[in-house]
Design brief:
The protein is built from 16 helices and 7 strands. By secondary structure, it is α+β, with helices and mostly antiparallel strands. The chain has 3 domains: about 90 residues, Double Stranded RNA Binding Domain (2-Layer Sandwich); about 80 residues, DNA polymerase, domain 1 (Orthogonal Bundle); about 160 residues, Intergrase catalytic core (hpI Integrase, Chain A). The strands form 2 sheets. Strands 1-2-3-4 form a 4-stranded antiparallel β-sheet, covered by helices on one side. It has a 3-stranded antiparallel β-sheet with strand order 5-6-7, with no helix packed on it. Strand 6 and strand 7 form a beta hairpin. The longest helix is centred in the middle third of the chain and has 20 residues. The radius of gyration is 35 Å and the shape is elongated.
């Protein structure tokens, strides 16, 4: 018989030997508490999903007895759910669908398969997999996609604050993941939890080589008794500004000596022309070709290219006293010398294969200021004129209106 469910009522219910005991509330129709042999007590709601006696019965669990669920809070929740039922909703079906909803780990697999592996280079895909495995999935993998909030993304980003560059890359990958989740209909539009999160400031990673440092590097490269292919790879990086993978995978068939260029069919930014200035051509001319190996920088395996340039580079840079210089910094050295010599950022960007002009802007501070140069030239001419020298520029009088 229904009775008002109170704490005293619940405490007085003895667990059955088998099955379950349900006590119904006498104030809210369909609201009750279920007790099982284990002693577990759960608040529930029984309702019909639809109108009429033919509508299916639904039994929805509200929660286990104990904080936060008390008779009063559970009764309030039952009233709220009944209000949804009166409006045509089916809370039990919604809960079932939510239980089946995809997790972040589920859509991470889809993201990697349909977006990253299909549209990104192998090295980029490997980096995405590393970020998912080490950071994103341990923190958010078990959460439902629809449940991830901005606070969750902010917490993950903040936890990596000691490595700001990595923290920002994690946030960028996570943001792309949730953009696609919206496109796939798994979240409402405009709910990306990474929106409005401020990225950490990143310290410049470029290491510009000075003239004395380049001289020390040249001395070591000239006398190095190691692999001629490793030495050649390092010289080509410096003389062309190419990316390391572009040099390591360079094939003899790509090279046109007469045009002094190599046609790369599949660089990081797609098809690319790699210009080969005279010093680079000299390196290629002195490099022996191996029969049956199409690659310029050959490795130990027959027919393969060199894979690990880091090991010989560590030995070379140590001998040159350049312990904090990365291989990628040779690319920066190429660009910085060009900028300091007056080459335009547009030309430097073309040589480096940048697709975005903003990427080349990091070298803008190295370029000579044309406005200052012009001001200095004008002032020098005026100073000479004041000293009685003939002006070197002709003066064109302004024409007035004809009468």
């Amino acid at each position: 018989m229904p009775e008002r469910i109170t704490k005293r009522t619940i405490d007085g219910i003895k667990p059955p030997a088998t099955g379950e005991t349900i006590v119904w509330d006498d104030q809210v129709a369909g609201f009750g508490v279920r007790v099982r042999p284990s002693g577990a007590k759960t608040y529930l709601l029984l309702y019909r999903a639809g109108s009429g006696r033919g509508a299916p019965l639904r039994k929805l669990s509200i929660g286990r007895h104990g904080s936060p669920w008390t008779p009063d809070t559970a009764r309030t929740e039952a009233k709220r759910l009944l209000g949804q039922v009166a409006g045509g909703a089916d809370p039990a079906a919604v809960k079932t669908e939510r239980r089946k909803a995809e997790t972040v780990a589920d859509i991470a697999d889809k993201f990697m398969e349909e977006h990253v592996e299909a549209k990104r280079k192998g090295r980029t895909a490997a980096e995405y997999r590393r970020l998912f495995a080490n950071f994103i999935l341990p923190a958010l993998g078990s959460k439902k996609v629809v449940d991830v909030a901005r606070a969750d993304a902010a917490r993950l980003h903040h936890s990596l604050r000691s490595t700001p560059y990595q923290a920002n890359r994690v946030l960028a990958v996570l943001s792309k993941l949730f953009n696609l989740a919206e496109a796939w209909g798994l979240r409402p539009d405009g709910t990306n939890p990474c929106r409005h999160l401020e990225r950490f400031d990143e310290k410049a990673r470029e290491r510009m080589l000075s003239a004395p440092e380049l001289a020390r590097l040249g001395e070591v490269l000239h006398g190095d008794g190691g692999s001629p292919y490793a030495v050649a790879a390092i010289k080509l990086l410096l003389f062309t500004g190419a990316r390391m993978n572009e040099v390591l995978t360079l094939k003899w068939d790509y090279i046109d000596i007469e045009r002094a260029e190599a046609r790369l069919p599949d660089s990081k930014t797609g098809v690319k022309t790699l210009h080969l200035p005279p010093p680079a051509l000299t390196v290629l001319a002195q490099l022996p070709r191996l029969d049956g190996n199409p690659f310029v920088i050959t490795g130990q395996k027959p027919g393969a290219h060199l894979v690990n340039l880091e090991k010989p580079w560590r030995a070379i840079r140590a001998a040159a006293g350049l312990d904090n210089v990365r291989l990628h910094d040779l690319r920066h050295a190429f660009a910085s010398v060009g900028a300091a010599g007056g080459d335009s950022l547009l030309v430097i960007g073309k040589l480096l294969g940048h697709t975005q002009s903003a990427t080349t802007q990091r070298y803008a501070h190295l370029a000579p200021d044309p406005v200052k140069a012009a001001a200095a030239g004008i002032a020098a001419k005026l100073e000479a004129a004041l000293a009685g020298a003939e002006p070197t520029a002709s003066v064109i009088p302004l024409r007035g209106r004809r009468p």
